[in-house]
Design brief:
The protein is an alpha+beta fold and about 140 residues long. The protein has two helices and seven strands, in the order βαββββββα. Strands 1, 2, 3, 4, 5, 6 and 7 form a seven-stranded antiparallel beta sheet that branches. The termini are far apart. The model has no long low-confidence stretch (mean pLDDT about 95).
Amino acid sequence: MARIQLDLPERFTYRTEVTLRVSDMNYAGHMGNDTVMSLLHEARSRLLKENGCEGQKIEGLGLVVADAVVIYKAQAHYADVMVIEMTARDFNRYGCDLVYRISNRDTAAEIARAKTGIVFFNYDQGRVNGVPERFFELIGVRPE
C-alpha cells in the first residue's frame, strides 16, 4: 500500500504550544490519534482568539474542515509539550489548505504532520463564501 506523502513548507506563520493531558493518551500509553485532530483544532482556534475573532469566526464566516490528512512520525506521552506550527497554502476561491507540524518542544522530534482543507462558510446564508481579507492578515500568507 502506498503511503501518503505531505511535504512541509519552508516557513510556518503561526506557532503555539500545548501540554498533553492524561486524557490525550490511548490504551498503549501514548498520544491517541484522535488527539492530533484536537490539537489541529486548538491551533486554529488559538489563531482566531489571539487575533480578536469572536465566536470562532472571521468577518462572520466559520471555518469548515473539508478534508484532513495526518502522518504520524513518532510517539508523544503524558505531559510532553507539543509545538504546533501552522501556515496556509494552495488557496482557492472558497478556502485553502492549512499545513501543520507537531513537534516535541524538548526533544525537537517531529510527532506528526498534517493538512486540513478548509472552506469559509456563512451559516446565516447556508453556503460557502470567499476567503475573507482578514484571514490573509491573520495567517500571514497571501495566494501566489
